[in-house]
């Protein structure tokens, strides 16, 4: 019996429906500018480096099939991963949900006696609310990824899978640093290299003096027990190399069958996500290496609703996501509302299909509708997740307002009876139901007429014209 | 050739000009057009709003209506997209394998207008005359579901008197998205605002597309702002001649 | 029931009897392709690495480092080093961080992506060595260069700690533009060894 991600822990559920949250974001001109600038930039970069590869489509097909193969063989692959990691000196833990994962990590940190951990950016730990759990146990988590740091210092929430502070521009980041970063140079400008340098100075001592790190994982290779973290800044390398203890939280869907399979994903991910031929740093480690890096390694395998996603044959492929965020960057809805409107750590198109499935669709009922079904995400996805079809599929499972149900059933009945259909056509025209250019419609149709005129009903329908020819 | 017209419920009820133009164009090109009167709606609105069960009779109706026809045309990328990519699924998920197979067969013979002209009738220059400055918005479903590519543009380039101007960021959604425009009216309007800005930037008198629904959305915005720019369905432009201009 | 058994049972129930298992198409480029060193240099430079094509390793390193002091892994040959250096025999973090730079060899490099990979071999050392100093000089032989990512994956040994490096440390976190120089080395020099003519 698969179970959804539990309520009351983590960040998968918003506190209001998407349209209400979107309304706030849409009214923020600075946010709109920041998002438009950033997404336009990344679309251009990504498009250029993808065009360099003659076999991009073949790689996508391979990535898609590898993910489907992985899901079909998940029990075997997870046990193989566990066996290989254990043989290489690591310890593997299984967490059925967010609460259990938080408890495991918190206890592991507590056992070291340390009061501070450094963190590599990880969606899984954001999803389960690990930082709050650690703080609750008197342990300070320090986010070391620049954007996560901006979010943390700004007492903010991440709004993008790859670039959690995408909603901030350089001058806002400078303001946050000046206000919140201890020891910052008051002469700091908003020049990006200077901002990056400020983060470097601020975190350096923390990297060198912290004994425990927590990371996520981009890939866990079942065949070899190898974990991989793909990053840019080197904060990942710091966390994965300097501490004595490393704790990695990995969603069960991140396993890949064989070492060779990395050749596919290491080509797809950087080009789709940051628009680079290759990201600056990728670290791969297998258990513990004597004399090099952390000598205590723990891998926490996380379910937290993933098995519920797996149970839906249509929705299952949402688990294929490699968290590249290409779908966010091409989405016309995301570009205008930003990530906070989605109420989950997984925003944008993939969030709209993943969050409702992790929580149960009734807890995120507005998300499957947060899309115009334009299809840009499907084309951009490096592992070919058919997000539009999953959205439509989830809409079919979502709870519907009673009035809408009645109206849709009536419409379907009418449309299935041509005589009634023609009568309705004539009634609409005669009643001038639409009023002056569509104003004065009942809700929710008045939402249309707030900004758009409705056409005048024509003098005669097409079928009237056809009959009269 | 004998071609059956699926007018679509929106064009039939609200935008008959697009369906009429489709008839006039095909007849001018020497083909016979038939209109099976028992047709109504393809069910796309129901499927995309989450009412798949309610859409089943509409799928069955479409299949029954057009099964006898060799070729079906509709002046809508999104309706043909639904017919081609959703009908069989709706039937299959209702456990109706037989209907699904029939739906697939009919869908294979159903074409969006620009597909029919270029792929089936093998014609690019339909002999149209339309002396206006026009910009073309590729609707999402024609572009990314049907993959009509540049077929509409190839047809427009052959129209005498027509000054075709390129739409910036053409491939971005206009924000209609069916019930999206109502359920997420604010976001839809924000998307529309950008689309309208790009249309106005071209200096065109007319914005055209292959879907009455998106044109209703874009046109509704352009009209509300009194921009003086019209929306005209692709079929209407292709049906225009010196005699009608 | 243990969480492991619970999760595995949930997965099996979710998948049902015979989950369909696709063939994985491998018709992307996989074979050995010719190595274009000029393109490698172009790709490295594009991500702000400095490339030196030379037969004179020690002279080049000396030119880069001047009178600074570098740390080196145990297996870096003496003849590369005409500069002040400390060999890593278990140096402390602080000693490594205090160095002006680090000199390593590499395991493999990829033309198409402008990537060098370190595998913690004797001449590359512990991962921390190439991480803390602000300058990383990486000596690369032409026979270590492959054309594509699949060839590199095939050459590497999975159990070893691997670090894939493509340019100096960078971030795209500010307005999604790439900016070089965050926590890792801000200066990456690749010494591409040419056979002396």
UniProtKB/TrEMBL annotation, chain A:
Lineage summary: Bacteria, Bacillati, Actinomycetota, Actinomycetes, Micromonosporales
Please provide, alphabetically and separated by semicolons, the GO molecular function terms listed in this UniProt record.
4 iron, 4 sulfur cluster binding; metal ion binding
**Pfam families, sorted:** Fer4_8, LUD_dom, LutB_C
Q: Which SUPFAM superfamilies match?
A: 4Fe-4S ferredoxins (SSF54862), NagB/RpiA/CoA transferase-like (SSF100950)
Note whether Electron transport occurs among the keywords.
Answer: yes
Indicate what this protein is called per its UniProt record. Answer: L-lactate dehydrogenase complex protein LldF
Q: Where is each LUD domain found?
A: 78-288
Domain of life from the UniProt record: Bacteria
Gene Ontology process terms (BP):
lactate metabolic process
Q: Tell me which residues make up the 4Fe-4S ferredoxin-type domain.
A: 318-385
**Keywords noted in UniProt:** 4Fe-4S, Electron transport, Iron, Iron-sulfur, Metal-binding, Repeat, Transport
Q: Which organism is it from?
A: Paractinoplanes abujensis
Domain named Lactate utilization protein B C-terminal is located at 396-468
Q: What InterPro entries does its record include? A: 4Fe4S_Fe-S-bd (IPR017896), 4Fe4S_Fe_S_CS (IPR017900), FTHF_cligase-like_sf (IPR024185), Helical_ferredxn (IPR009051), LUD_dom (IPR003741), LutB/LldF (IPR004452), LutB_C (IPR024569), NagB/RpiA_transferase-like (IPR037171)
From TrEMBL, chain B:
* InterPro entries, per database record: Cys_rich_dom
- Domain of life assignment: Bacteria
Task: List the residue ranges forming a coiled coil, or say none.
Answer: none
Q: Which Pfam families match?
A: CCG
Residues annotated as domain Cysteine-rich: 3-83, 134-218
UniProt GO cellular component terms:
cytosol
GO MF terms listed in the record are:
oxidoreductase activity
The record's section on PANTHER family has: LACTATE UTILIZATION PROTEIN A, UNCHARACTERIZED PROTEIN YKGE
Q: List the protein's name.
A: L-lactate dehydrogenase complex protein LldE
Organism, as annotated: Paractinoplanes abujensis
UniProtKB/TrEMBL annotation, chain C:
> Which residues does the UniProt record annotate as the domain LUD?
94-193
Instruction: List the InterPro entries.
Output: FTHF_cligase-like_sf (IPR024185), LUD_dom (IPR003741), NagB/RpiA_transferase-like (IPR037171)
The record's section on Gene3D superfamilies has:
NagB/RpiA/CoA transferase-like
- Name of this chain's protein: L-lactate dehydrogenase complex protein LldG
Source taxonomy lineage?
A: Bacteria, Bacillati, Actinomycetota, Actinomycetes, Micromonosporales
